[in-house]
Amino acid sequence: MRLENNFAGQRPRFQRTGSLFLLILWIFFLQSGCAMWPEPTRSVHVGATGPIGSCADFFTLLDRQVTASDAIDAGYARVEHYPYLRTDRFIASFEDEVEDNRTFATWVDHMQALDQSARRFEIAGLSESNVAALASMKTRDELYDKVVACGNLLKNNDFTNSENKARLRRRAAVRDEYIPLRRVLGISPISDIFVLRGVDRWHAEARARFSPEPPSNWHAIRYAPVEKPDFLSDPLWLHRIMNRTKRDALGIPAYPEEDRRLLFQAHAPLWEVPAQGDFDRIGTPIWTEDGRIEVDTGSPQTYTRLSFTRFGKAILTQLNYVVWFPSRPKEGVMDIYGGLLDGLNYRVTLDTDGKPILYETMHNCGCYYKAYPTSRLQVRKTMAYSEPPLIFNAREIDVSREWMVVAMAPRTHYVNHLYPLPRDFQSNTVDYRLQEYDHLKSLPQTNGNRKSMFNRYGIVPGSERLERYILWPTGVLSPGAMRQWGKHAVAFVGQRHFDDPFYLDRMFRPNHIP
Asked: How far, in Å, are 91, 278, 498 from residue 307 at the CA level?
């Protein structure tokens, strides 16, 4: 009897220990992100006879080798049953606006272009043995040519009637960057209360630190683009670009390559950061000999990415500038925010006349989002967001005569100042080069192969933060980790995405649209 009583008395402790162990295991399971894996999709024509079936089988075989090489590009969402199409939130937003043949064809062409872009980098990331497994293809160029040819063949076959077109419209969606199961298991209605308190504290601290004026007594490194935009002395440069830019059937601008380059040069920022160590120096991500991503601070680069958004009936151009630091150094062993790699995305949204309407900054983890509207925008008094965005006013600048300076704090790289500076200022600067963001998806390795800096979940391996074990109930995959463009959730409570095509309408009203 005493033995039974002793065991009975111990049972609650065993249950508590077992429950804690199961909870820890469950949290690790939730961190795996299996729900976010962009699995390849198969055409409905797989196994069919003739060229259609052959092309469907080719995409299946190619995806098998890409998966085996761990070369999946997570930047764009795959469209179920259409392996030659991928989409993003902006392109998917037209699903209810492509009723006629012309707009529908343009919409599909955009999705095919996204897939071809992703395939080019996936093919570059194939190992030699996986290329060899595709027996009929001798080179990577031949593989890509077959991607284009087979994509065209399947596209011309798949949308021959209104029913097939309607099916695509239903499937061309992008799931959000939140895992619902985590929010359920994390009892988000309760956990959100504590997360919002933390957000409110950060907002208060950020408001106290931020200024649209230059910092005083701040000895910092300034990074400036090596290519000087001499064309800005021509008062008609912007007028010419806007006049010769054509728009497709969806209204999306199609900039010639040279004009695109000029726009990025014109709005390129000055980066400013007090360097307390190498971790505060801008550089270039590289693969090391032991298979890790590091940032080479001897070669500063700013990565550019063109994107678009919607505002009322207008489609606006966005210029993204992304930089990388070696780390956000830890303040101690229990610092949940510090870790390897850090970075910032500075975005300039242009009005329909090509002039800035909004500036934004976001760390490459999707954290610390800030918006800086110009006088052309009016902040809405109420927004349908559970977690409100942090908004400051921006100073007006004339890009022909002024730089916009993005000034970051040391160590944390928080943007504490966003201010204009005359282009003829007298000060030493460190040169940086503008580079296409897509280069990050095919970096050389020391063994001669190429590999994206982002894994199949769109995360930079090795950049994970301890905060992921605390903030998992928010539903965000690996909070604090650096991630690929298009994978940025910018709110922990509710939902907000950096590439939401309708966020401008939700946050602002126009003061003036030319």
From this structure: 11, 31, 11
| Interatomic CA distance for residues 397 and 420, integer angstroms | 6
Q: Which of 71, 32, 35, 75 is nearest to 458 (CA)?
A: 75
Alpha helices in 48-187 (DSSP H): 50-68, 89-92, 101-124, 128-133, 140-158, 162-171, 180-185
Distance CA 477, CA 4 (A): 46
DSSP state of 276: S
Q: Which residues of 380-391 are buried (b: 16+ CB within 10 A; e: fewer)?
A: eeebeeebbbbb
- 195 three-state secondary structure: helix
DSSP E strands in 210-267: the ranges are 221-225, 246-247, 253-254
Residue 405: CB atoms within 10 A of its CB come to 21
Report the chain's C-alpha Rg in angstroms: 25
**22 by DSSP, 3-state: which?**
helix
What's the token pair of residue 37? 């894996």
d(CA 131, CA 122): 11
Give yes or no for a contact between 509 and 377, defined as CB atoms under 8 angstroms apart. yes
CB proximity list for 387: less than 8 A, separation 6 or greater: 195, 196, 199, 491, 492, 493, 494, 496
User: Are residues 176 and 489 in contact, defined by beta-carbon separation less than 8 angstroms?
Assistant: yes
Question: Nearest to residue 309, comparing CAs of 257, 359, 350?
Answer: 350
- Alpha-carbon distance of 400 to 238, in angstroms, equals 10
pTM across the whole model: 0.92
Distance CA 66, CA 70 (A): 6
| Residue linked to tokens 């927004």 | 383
Using alpha carbons, list the distances in angstroms from residue 298 to 109, 292, 454, 469, 485. Answer: 40, 18, 22, 34, 24
Residue 14 has pLDDT above 90, yes or no: no
Reported as a pLDDT band with limits 50, 70 and 90, residue 131 is confident
pLDDT grade, residue 12 (50/70/90)?
very low
Number of H helices, E strands in the chain: 12, 21
Q: Are strands 246-247 and 253-254 parallel, antiparallel or unpaired?
A: antiparallel
In 170-283, DSSP assigns E strands to 221-225, 246-247, 253-254, 270-273
- Tell me the mean pLDDT in the region 134-151: 88
Burial class (CB in 10 A: 0-12, 13-18, 19+), 54: middle
CA nearest to 62, candidates 148, 126, 152, 128: 126
Q: State pLDDT tens for residues 42-95.
A: 999 999 999 999 999 999 999 999 999 999 999 999 999 999 999 999 999 999
